[in-house]
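DM from R.C. (forwarded with permission)

"hey, sorry to bug you on a friday — could you get me a structure for this? deadline for the figure draft is monday and I only need the backbone to look sensible"
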Amino acid sequence: MLQEQFEHDIASLIVDVLQLEVTPDSIDPEAPLFNTGLGLDSIDALELVLAISRRYGAELKADDERNGQIFASLRNLARYVEANRK
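My reply, with the result:
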Protein backbone atom coordinates (compact mmCIF):
# COMPACT_ATOMS: atom_id res chain seq x y z
CA MET A 1 0.00 0.00 0.00
CA LEU A 2 1.29 3.46 -0.79
CA GLN A 3 2.62 5.36 2.23
CA GLU A 4 0.29 8.32 1.67
CA GLN A 5 -2.77 6.08 1.47
CA PHE A 6 -1.77 4.22 4.63
CA GLU A 7 -1.19 7.53 6.44
CA HIS A 8 -4.71 8.55 5.39
CA ASP A 9 -6.08 5.24 6.70
CA ILE A 10 -4.38 5.80 10.07
CA ALA A 11 -5.61 9.43 10.12
CA SER A 12 -9.15 8.18 9.47
CA LEU A 13 -8.80 5.69 12.31
CA ILE A 14 -7.61 8.46 14.65
CA VAL A 15 -10.53 10.73 13.72
CA ASP A 16 -13.12 7.94 13.97
CA VAL A 17 -11.93 6.31 17.19
CA LEU A 18 -11.30 9.57 19.03
CA GLN A 19 -14.33 11.31 17.52
CA LEU A 20 -12.27 14.34 16.57
CA GLU A 21 -13.85 17.32 14.89
CA VAL A 22 -11.29 17.41 12.10
CA THR A 23 -11.03 15.61 8.79
CA PRO A 24 -8.34 13.00 8.16
CA ASP A 25 -7.02 15.17 5.31
CA SER A 26 -6.47 18.10 7.67
CA ILE A 27 -3.99 16.16 9.84
CA ASP A 28 -0.45 17.16 8.90
CA PRO A 29 1.56 13.91 8.66
CA GLU A 30 4.60 15.60 10.22
CA ALA A 31 2.81 17.51 13.01
CA PRO A 32 2.95 16.21 16.59
CA LEU A 33 -0.01 14.06 17.62
CA PHE A 34 0.16 15.18 21.25
CA ASN A 35 0.22 18.53 23.03
CA THR A 36 0.73 21.41 20.58
CA GLY A 37 -0.04 19.35 17.48
CA LEU A 38 -3.29 17.43 17.27
CA GLY A 39 -3.69 17.79 21.04
CA LEU A 40 -4.10 14.14 21.97
CA ASP A 41 -3.59 12.99 25.56
CA SER A 42 -2.76 9.72 27.33
CA ILE A 43 -6.38 8.49 27.30
CA ASP A 44 -6.50 9.11 23.56
CA ALA A 45 -3.29 7.12 23.21
CA LEU A 46 -4.81 4.12 25.01
CA GLU A 47 -7.91 4.17 22.79
CA LEU A 48 -5.75 4.50 19.71
CA VAL A 49 -3.47 1.61 20.72
CA LEU A 50 -6.50 -0.65 21.18
CA ALA A 51 -7.96 0.34 17.81
CA ILE A 52 -4.64 -0.20 16.02
CA SER A 53 -4.22 -3.58 17.66
CA ARG A 54 -7.72 -4.66 16.63
CA ARG A 55 -7.53 -3.42 13.06
CA TYR A 56 -3.91 -4.09 12.15
CA GLY A 57 -2.64 -6.53 14.78
CA ALA A 58 0.31 -4.25 15.51
CA GLU A 59 1.40 -4.45 19.12
CA LEU A 60 2.19 -1.25 21.00
CA LYS A 61 3.30 -1.59 24.60
CA ALA A 62 3.09 1.12 27.26
CA ASP A 63 6.67 0.49 28.44
CA ASP A 64 8.27 0.61 24.99
CA GLU A 65 11.00 3.24 25.09
CA ARG A 66 10.32 4.00 21.40
CA ASN A 67 6.77 5.25 22.06
CA GLY A 68 7.84 8.89 22.03
CA GLN A 69 9.23 8.42 18.54
CA ILE A 70 6.42 6.14 17.31
CA PHE A 71 3.72 8.60 18.39
CA ALA A 72 5.68 11.73 17.42
CA SER A 73 3.63 12.19 14.25
CA LEU A 74 1.05 10.57 12.02
CA ARG A 75 3.84 9.63 9.59
CA ASN A 76 5.88 7.88 12.29
CA LEU A 77 2.84 6.05 13.61
CA ALA A 78 1.80 4.92 10.13
CA ARG A 79 5.32 3.65 9.38
CA TYR A 80 5.43 1.70 12.63
CA VAL A 81 1.99 0.15 12.13
CA GLU A 82 2.70 -0.76 8.52
CA ALA A 83 5.99 -2.42 9.47
CA ASN A 84 4.48 -4.33 12.42
CA ARG A 85 0.99 -5.29 11.31
CA LYS A 86 -0.01 -8.91 11.10
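R.C.: lifesaver. The mean pLDDT is 93.
me: no worries. The CA atoms of residues 8 and 24 lie 6 Å apart.
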